[in-house]
Write a structure and sequence with these properties.
Elements: E1 3-10, H1 15-25, H2 28-33, E2 38-44, E3 52-59, H3 62-70, H4 73-83, E4 87-93
Antiparallel strand pairs: 1-3, 1-4, 2-3
Length: 108
């Protein structure tokens, strides 16, 4: 069963966007995408909140996410969050196809 983690990064004006630019330019985001068990690692910006960036981070299972959290890359992420003085809010979800009964509400 996949696990989706939505992370909302918020900071001073322009800070979250600068964080994402550095994550991509440094190759850190791509290295995370290449980790075993990573199924999605994509950034988005809410239309009504220019100082927040949403990261949709999807993993094959909890064990994959745990390996990611134990990797040296987490220190790199923490350093960048500190550099840009970002704060986070987190939501955990499961995909609709993993939630029996939800199919009847989806239009395909």
């Amino acid at each position: 069963m996949s696990l989706i983690v939505n992370l909302y990064y918020t900071g001073k004006p322009g800070a979250a966007q600068a964080f994402v630019k550095e994550m991509e330019a440094s190759g850190c985001a791509e290295r995370i995408r290449q980790e075993a068990g990573n199924e999605r690692y994509d950034y988005f910006q809410p239309l009504n909140d220019p100082d927040t960036i949403l990261l949709i981070d999807q993993w094959a299972d909890q064990a994959s996410l745990d390996r990611h959290h134990a990797s040296p890359m987490m220190q790199e992420l923490a350093d960048l969050r500190e550099k840009y003085d970002l704060h986070m809010r987190v939501e955990r979800m499961v995909p609709a196809n993993d939630a029996p009964g939800d199919e009847k509400f989806l239009r395909k």
